[in-house]
Amino acid sequence: MSGQQRSNIEIGMEVEVVQKQDQRTGKLTRGIVKDILTKSANHPHGIKVRLEGGEVGRVKRTI
């Protein structure tokens, strides 16, 4: 599923995000969604979320 649609993302689901400092390399970080930070229904670079570990990034893939 695409990480660009807010409706595809739910709190508690496992996702892979790219953090701000990893945007150039595209390194993905896997974790569980704690908060959804993007308010709009969609975003071309991915919905911004906070993971349970505290990392913040844009969703690239849902697991």
UniProtKB/TrEMBL annotation:
The lineage of its organism: Bacteria, Bacillati, Bacillota, Bacilli, Bacillales. It comes from the Bacteria. It holds the Pfam family DUF2196. This is Repeat protein (TIGR03833 family). InterPro entries: DUF2196 (IPR019240).
